[in-house]
Amino acid sequence: SETTSALLYLNGISVSFDGFRALNELSFVIEPGEMRAIIGPNGAGKTTMMDVITGKTRPDTGDVFFEQGKYDLSTLDETEIATLGIGRKFQKPTVFEMHTVEDNLQLALKNDRGVKATLFWKSSPEQEARIDEVLETVRLKALRHRVAGSLSHGQKQWLEIAMLLAQDPKLLLVDEPVAGMTDVETMQTAELLREINRTKSVVVVEHDMAFVRELGVKVTCLHEGSVLAEGSIDQVSANDRVVEVYLGR
Ligand code: ADP
């Protein structure tokens, strides 16, 4: 069945904060190799969902099965989940502003197993090759010796995505990557995520519908902590309830 072949299977997840249900029996499936866009109004539970997947928040009820049911993430802590190959990009860029692009990637690589990173360790040839590869992917090769603080907002977001890629996750969770980006950067980010999705599964939370359309992937719309609608962007944006609670008329 689709649930046993799933890369990620959220099964009846509920989370309450002081009696308020942020997630209400949320269930959905991400297939191996898939990229999924998650949309929904403020307060729908998108951030809480990401927090549950990464182990930052433990669900009150439900299971989070990863890799064909091999692991139940709801029983693991954040470090264990990261080690299984789940990388998360928060909305705001958090690069080391005083370090160069290349050194940011060195630090990301060395932090792979949760060890406190230092630039004094010499990189292996494999690590150097990996840095070249991810710089190529995010198209920041020409800026590798620039201090990260001097990059544009969009370039910092791409650098942080590269830092996650350096750790070679199986599943990349990306929270509102194009907020604050120019239109050109937004479209380049869609292209970048599609390229990343050739080898990795991706879940991206986003409000920018032009960007979601550009991704061209299956969309899940959350509302009041559960799935309101799921399907292509055309199907979801034609759904009356989605229009009512999210898109507006
Ligand atoms: P979204 O990311 O879709 O905007 P969230 O997951 O951030 O939604 O929030 C879902 C609901 O849960 C919101 O009403 C929010 O106020 C509430 N909530 C989220 N985190 C907490 C928390 N730590 N304590 C209390 N309420 C919270």
Automatic annotation (TrEMBL):
Pfam families noted in UniProt: ABC_tran
Keywords for this protein: ATP-binding, Nucleotide-binding, Transport
GO molecular function: ATP binding; ATP hydrolysis activity
Transmembrane annotation, as ranges: none
CDD domains: ABC_Mj1267_LivG_branched (cd03219)
Keyword Zinc: no
SUPFAM superfamilies: P-loop containing nucleoside triphosphate hydrolases
UniProt xrefs under InterPro entries: ABC_AA/LPS_Transport, ABC_transporter-like_ATP-bd, ABC_transptr_urea_ATP-bd_UrtD, P-loop_NTPase
GO cellular component, one term: plasma membrane
Protein name, as recorded: Urea ABC transporter ATP-binding protein UrtD
Native species: Undibacter mobilis
